[in-house]
Amino acid sequence: MSHFTTIKVEIKNGIILQEVLEELGYQVANNTKVRGYQGNTTQAEYVIKQDNGYDLGFRRSGENYELIADFWGAKINQKEFVNSISQKYAHKTLIKSANEQGFNIEEEEILEDGTVRLVVGRWI
């Protein structure tokens, strides 16, 4: 019996996802198996291998990625994990999009509540 749980996340760009995971200090393996309870495995495009044998994986599902893991064995707080990845992913995606559209990042600050405030501008 599989103990894997999937969580839909608003992540579309796998390259940015991998950059985010690495910036958060995770080593990422590509196109490999996610390990779970009693040696069960499932395939994912981006996998964080853990020493305890319970990995965290991201695999494409339609246009987005989903997080797949045996969270009981993975011993992580899934809400905090997903929130940290989602916030950093949104930040990187916004900066990439702004640069592609000819904007420069004029100012960036992190507010007391953790919100990131960006000011962008461009000469026309």
Question: What's the CATH class, please?
Answer: Alpha Beta
Whole-number mean pLDDT: 91
Order of helices and strands: EHEEEEHHEE
Task: Please tell me what the overall shape is.
Answer: elongated
Give helix % range.
Answer: 25-40%
Rg over CA atoms, rounded to whole Å, is 17 Å
End-to-end Cα distance: 60 Å
Structural domains: how many: 1
Residue fraction in strands: 35-45%
The major beta sheet can be summarized as: 5 strands, antiparallel
Tell me the number of helical segments per DSSP (H or I, 4 or more residues long). 3
- Broad structural category: alpha+beta
The CATH architecture designation is 2-Layer Sandwich
Q: What is the CATH T-level topology? A: TATA-Binding Protein
If strands are numbered along the chain, what order do they take across the biggest sheet? 1-5-4-3-2
The stretches of 5 or more residues where confidence is low (pLDDT under 50) are: none
Number of strands: 7
